[in-house]
Design brief:
Residues 174-346 form the Helicase C-terminal domain. With 893 residues, the protein is α/β, with parallel strands linked by helices. It folds into six domains: 1-36, no CATH class; 50-83 and 142-312, Rossmann fold (3-Layer(aba) Sandwich); 319-368 and 390-423 and 510-516, Arc Repressor Mutant, subunit A (Orthogonal Bundle); 522-669, Sec63 N-terminal domain-like fold (Orthogonal Bundle), CATH 1.10.3380; 671-729; 733-760 and 773-880, Immunoglobulin-like. The chain starts with a helix and ends in a 13-residue tail after the last strand.
């Protein structure tokens, strides 16, 4: 944003919030924030004092260590979140203690509680409303104070919650209300809210006062857990680390159960960043309610001293841009911000990565450590010191240049980028004012940097600003040396000079122009890596099918979707390779037995579980399936864009079919009638009876004038018939009409062109009789304009009917125009439309063949992106006039 601001001279204001940082001045300078706008506090500065307890566990392996932490977590809850009841009170039956409520809210002092005669006295807050108009809510003295338990995975949230409930009933059978505070008048409403929860594990633990929160739950379930905990009805919330950043749910006690998380890409457990732990600890303590807070950290024993030492000495924030630099450069090239390599380097100098590289170069490249050591030992003489500083700057400049070249080469290898010679106009601009323009841009950049340094006002910041400017000068000199100065066809690389794909008239000193390719744009728009786009393009292009002498089947398309690099992050946990092997035995599509521990194989099995509605081995697979489906939508859209670019009609139809199957939880061999409630598990005899009555698929029943009568004849009960008819109202009834226009004004520009409607004519047979086929007769090479009108004959709901998909979705339609002949299989154009107002229009423009007397048949496919079995096909027969034909006046059909 600051780079764009420097180019447009329009200032941008940033407001940033974070945990305590060791290098807050670096972040502020990167954002352009001066000394006046920077506020940095130590981690120990808190509105509520917090005591941190760290306990180590010696178990070597992760799972036994997590199991060993369950009882200590429960003990920590009793020790640090207890309402200060005596041991005698802990064994008192709950019906005796239910009459005693604290008159204050979340006070840490139990001495301020006063007794009242009954549990129903002066409860003022409504359960369903966030406001409490009649006063603060009163809480039971037997219930614990609100506590958060952070775990590393979704599986651990469920297991930890279940263990806490089990320990509660095992060790305190007379005080089972420790985690729950629901008064008698709230019981009915609480039960109704809990019963509305979809997740079975969460529904069970909520009844005992323990909530679960993670990204795998539905939005409704997450909202219920957060609301019940915030209001104080449940006193323990077990959540993943993402809750520490995403929601504001403070508590008296925070327990961090384990400081490691599983990294699917490296297939090992990694430590949480210190900033994440600080964020979790920061949830302890509620201002205005608590006078003190407690945080308990359970970790591996060898790491205990590390956390004791560095927990309140945070590390500086470093950049991770280098790992995804190619994706960022691709996005900027597609957007037109970057057009040359020099601009890419200039863009990189505006990033936080560049600022940290100049301050801590050895973190990003160990080879730069030698230059750091040389520079530090060169203080013995001014001349030696100046030489060492120059060497250090040159090394950093070379590293930046190499990083940009490698990123651009990666885009070239992925066919997301192409290089070309500057045009004559670009050359003339460069000769007359290009260098001046670049000098102005560099001057503007240095001025902004100087302004930021001047606002900062600190000596070390000024030195770092001078260092950055010196390195930028080195980069400019290095770029001048690497500018191509000879012509010729060379290799596609940014490292050397031979980078062009065509000949030039003479030597030039201009840089090659970076242009995005269709694959680069597809990767950028659909948020996938250029490598993924390249892999999909290689698999879906026509040459691939010819080499293998076969076309990709629907199963191959599903396997291709599961094999994209985006699914490398799919976790394969301990012992899940054995679960995958057992689960594959009931899946219809086979897998390679040697790849059961692969995340791509697991994703392939999860897709089959969705399409065939198979029971998954464990509950964790349900949450993994939701993540796989979320990624599948954008990857399938990218596959469809690639099919359009490659003009592959059948592959595009298969991709759309996979869209429908994943959303409706069905497969191509299944009847579309199975989408209805009482037909999903109906016996085949019922479907055969419907077929005898003329209902062969879902459209026949949706469009039937009296579906209830047909269902009753098929043997369905009145209740089931009514429920099926109610579901039929949710399906759209789409009406499609087409009109073909011919461009009449020859030689006119596109803006002046006039299109005249060409109605279809009956095709005359050899004996003079009129046939049933309707054709459009046009002149050879005519420009054609096809107008498609879509309209709903009913009023379907805005939200599509997707009972087996985990998210709400609005229905859209794909319009594909192509030649469906097996020998041709050409996709001419594709459109995606939505009928928000119940109707819409789309248009296609194409040309007729140049050969006279030829006929060709095009098909317009109208496919739903949500519903299975509601697709339509419209054929368009077009004939070109032969030389000497006598045009007959067309008549409307």
């Amino acid at each position: 944003m600051r780079y764009v601001s420097s180019q447009t001279d329009q200032p941008v204001r940033f407001v940033g919030l974070s945990t305590a940082l060791a290098n807050a001045s670096d972040v502020a300078a990167w954002l352009g924030i001066g000394k006046i706008g920077l506020f940095n506090f130590k981690p120990a500065v808190r509105p509520v004092p917090c005591s941190v307890h760290i306990q180590g566990f010696p178990q070597k392996h992760y799972c036994p260590r997590m199991n060993a932490m369950n009882k200590p977590v429960f003990e920590a809850l009793l020790t640090h979140a207890s309402p200060d009841l005596s041991a005698e009170d802990m064994h008192t039956p709950p019906e005796i203690l239910n009459g005693v409520y604290s008159t204050c809210t979340f006070s840490s002092s139990s001495s301020s509680s006063s007794s009242s005669s009954s549990s129903s006295s002066s409860f003022s807050s409504s359960f369903s409303s966030a406001s409490s108009s009649a006063g603060p809510r009163r809480f039971s003295p037997i219930a614990l104070r609100p506590s958060l338990v952070f775990v590393s995975s979704r599986r651990q949230t469920r297991r930890t919650a279940q263990e806490l409930v089990s320990l509660l009933h095992t060790r305190h059978e007379h005080a089972t209300d420790l985690f729950l505070d629901v008064r008698p008048e709230e019981a009915d409403e609480f039960s109704q809210t809990v019963e509305s929860v979809q997740d079975a594990s969460l529904r069970t633990t909520l009844h005992h006062g323990v909530a679960i929160h993670h990204a795998g739950l539905s939005p409704h379930d997450r909202a219920v857990s957060a609301r019940l905990f915030e209001k104080g009805f449940v006193r323990v919330l077990v959540a993943t680390a993402t809750l520490a950043w995403g929601m504001n749910l403070p508590a008296r006690l925070v327990v961090v159960k384990g400081t490691e998380y599983y990294d699917a890409e490296t297939n090992r457990y990694k430590d949480f960043p210190i900033t994440d732990l600080l964020q979790m600890i920061g949830r302890a303590g509620r201002p205005q309610f608590d006078s003190q807070a407690v945080a308990v950290i359970f970790c591996h024993e060898p790491k205990k001293n590390f956390y004791k030492r560095f927990l309140y000495q945070p590390f500086p924030v470093e950049s991770c841009l280098l790992n995804v630099l190619a994706e960022h450069l691709n996005a900027e090239i597609v957007g037109g911000t970057i057009q040359t390599k020099q601009q890419a380097i200039e863009y990189l100098t505006w990033t936080y990565f560049f600022r940290r590289l100049t301050s801590n170069p050895s973190y990003y490249d160990p080879s730069l450590m030698i230059q750091e050591l040389t520079s530090s030992f060169a203080s013995r003489g001014d001349r030696l010191q100046a030489s060492a500083v120059r060497q250090r700057r040159a090394a950093i400049a070379a590293f930046v240049d190499k990083a940009v070249c490698e990123a651009l080469d990666e885009l070239l290898e992925a066919s997301a980028l192409r290089l070309r010679f500057p045009t004559a106009e670009e050359k003339s601009q460069a000769v007359t004012g290009g260098d001046a323009t670049q000098a102005v841009a560099v001057t503007r950049r240095l001025r902004h940097s100087a302004d930021a340094d001047e606002q900062d006002g600190e000596q070390d910041e000024e030195e770092r600003g001078q260092e950055a400017r010196a390195i930028r000068a080195e980069l400019s000199a290095l770029s001048e040396e690497k500018k191509p100065a000879r012509r010729g066809r060379g290799r596609k690389t940014c490292e050397g000079r031979d980078i062009f794909e065509e000949e030039d008239d003479g030597p030039t000193s201009l840089e090659p122009v970076l242009e995005s390719t269709p694959l680069g744009r597809i990767a950028c728009v659909n948020y996938i890596s250029p490598k993924s786009a390249k892999m999909l393009s290689d698999a879906l292009r026509p040459a691939q099918a010819e080499e293998e002498n076969r076309r990709l089947s629907f199963v191959d398309i599903v396997k291709l979707l599961a094999d994209v690099p985006e699914y490398k992050q799919m976790p394969v946990r301990h012992n899940e390779d054995n679960l995958n092997a057992d689960f594959s035995a009931i899946c219809p599509y086979p897998i390679d037995a040697s790849t059961v521990n692969s995340p791509h194989t697991k994703t392939f099995l999860l897709f089959q579980a969705q399409m065939f509605q198979l029971p998954v081995p464990i509950a964790d697979y349900n949450t993994d399936l939701k993540s796989a489906l979320d990624n599948a939508m954008r990857i399938l859209q990218a596959m469809l864009d690639i099919c359009t670019e490659e003009a592959q009609l059948r592959y595009a139809l298969d991709v759309i079919l996979l869209f429908q199957c994943l959303i409706q939880a069905t497969h191509p061999a299944r009847s579309s009638l199975r989408a209805l409630k009482h037909l999903r598990s109906a016996e085949p005899s019922r479907l055969r009876r419907l077929s005898c009555l003329g209902i062969h698929s879902l459209p026949f029943l949706v469009e039937h004038k009296c579906p209830a009568a047909v269902l009753l004849k098929a043997g369905f009960t009145d209740k089931h018939t009514h429920e099926i008819c109610e579901e039929l109202k949710k399906f759209p009834r789409l009406r499609v009409s087409t009109r073909l226009f011919v461009k009449e004004a020859e030689g006119a520009s596109d803006d002046e062109a006039v299109f005249e409607h060409s109605p279809p004519q009956p095709l005359r047979q050899g004996d003079g009789r009129e046939g049933e086929t309707l054709v459009h007769t046009v002149r050879p090479g005519a420009d054609l304009h096809l107008e498609v009108s879509l309209k709903y004959s009913n009023l379907p709901p805005q939200v599509a009917f997707t009972p087996n998909f985990h998210k709400q979705k609005t229905a859209g339609w794909f319009l594909l125009l192509g030649d469906a002949d097996e020998d041709v299989d050409e996709l001419i154009a594709l459109r995606r439309v939505h009928l928000h107002s119940g109707k819409t229009q789309a248009s296609f423009e194409f040309s007729a063949p140049d050969v006279g007397g030829a006929s060709f048949l095009l098909t317009l496919f109208v496919c739903s992106d949500t519903y299975f079995g509601l697709d339509q096909e419209i054929e368009l027969c077009i004939r070109t006039e032969a030389t000497g034909d006598i045009d007959e006046a067309p008549r409307e059909i």
